[in-house]
Input
Amino acid sequence: MEEACLRAIPYSKLDELCNSIPAFKNFRLQVSLQVISMLSEKTLALQFQTAEQRYKNMLDKFPGILLRASLGHIASYLGITQQTLSVIRACR
Output
């Protein structure tokens, strides 16, 4: 895990920003669409790909992830146990 700084604003303030700044409204829409796309992709992967395929795709998409995240977090992201992840890594 890495440190991050997050800010939260009330939903009503977010709506005010969108109404007063059209470019912000467009930005919000684009971010929402990206999140929906990522969630759909992950759901499909969990349903139709093997654990090995998900692991390979993760490494292709996030090449430095093994240096930045714990194996427990990676296993959780892939929807598998740490033991299964160890077996996959040993076979590569």
In short: The chain has a mean pLDDT of 96. The two ends are 25 Å apart (CA to CA).
